[in-house]
Write a structure and sequence with these properties.
The chain is of the alpha/beta class. The protein has helices spanning about 15-20, 65-80, 90-95, 180-190, 200-205, 210-229, and strands at about 1-5, 25-30, 45-50, 85, 100-115, 130-140, 150-155, 160-165, 170.
Length: about 230
């Protein structure tokens, strides 16, 4: 399996996804936009993963490579190639498909539950559990693109996940995190940890047991299996 990763910040890598891809004996390539914005041909790829980052998808004037990245994502979705977006990556999918990305009413940082949106039976949509504790670090949100299926929501943010067609999943939250990854978020973006209803403290974020990470990573495994299955 050939996987191409769109990475926007050195501290936001694959984390637990790397282990999941190793089980598939995946060959992984990457565009690291903080080093080189060159994008590959879509032909021959089996999965595109767009990771998170501290920037906004609306920052095209300051980060002109966003224009080409959105085109790349849009073409991958239209070609029916499996595409997974995580946090900023989810916002990129939304923007690439013509939806609005904008500041959410609340920043959402830390471990907070998402709730599955009930989907009519008979569809081919991915289904989350009724309630799942996941890691968040975002201040923006998105409208759903035309034709997208709403999959999950939270108390702080209505649009937490959506699906387009059979092969595109956009997740506003981070199922891939490990304790090391959470520590890296805090190290590089800790200035955002100011008292607010949906912002946890460093101690709260780091207090979760290993079982919480195991459960989140397992659901990321289900997401990847669904996309490439």
């Amino acid at each position: 399996m050939k996987v191409h990763v769109l990475q926007h910040a050195p501290f936001e890598g694959l984390a637990g996804i790397a282990t999941l891809l190793a089980a598939h004996q995946a060959k992984i390539t990457a565009t690291r936009f903080f080093e080189d914005a060159a994008l590959p041909e879509l032909k021959g790829l089996d999965l595109v993963i767009a990771m998170g980052g501290p920037m906004s998808v609306n920052d095209e004037a300051e980060l002109p490579w966003l224009v080409d990245e959105k085109r790349f994502v849009r073409e991958a979705v239209k070609a029916g190639l499996p595409v997974l977006g995580v946090c900023l990556g989810a916002q990129l999918i939304a923007s690439a498909l013509g939806a609005r990305v904008y500041r959410n009413a609340q920043k959402e940082i830390g471990w907070f539950p998402i709730d599955a949106v009930h989907i009519p039976a008979g569809g081919e949509q991915f289904v989350f559990p009724e309630n799942l504790n996941v890691f968040h670090w975002h201040g923006e949100t998105f409208d759903l693109p035309a034709g997208a299926v709403h999959l999950a929501q939270s108390a702080a943010c209505k649009n937490q996940a959506f699906q387009v067609g059979r092969r595109t999943l956009a997740l506003q939250f981070h199922l891939e995190v490990t304790p090391e990854a959470v520590g890296s978020f805090i190290e590089h973006c800790g200035d955002e940890l100011r008292p607010a209803p949906f912002i946890q403290t460093k101690a709260e974020m780091l207090s979760l047991p290993d079982a919480t990470y195991t459960q989140a990573n397992a659901w990321m495994g289900r997401v990847i299996e669904y996309l490439v299955g």
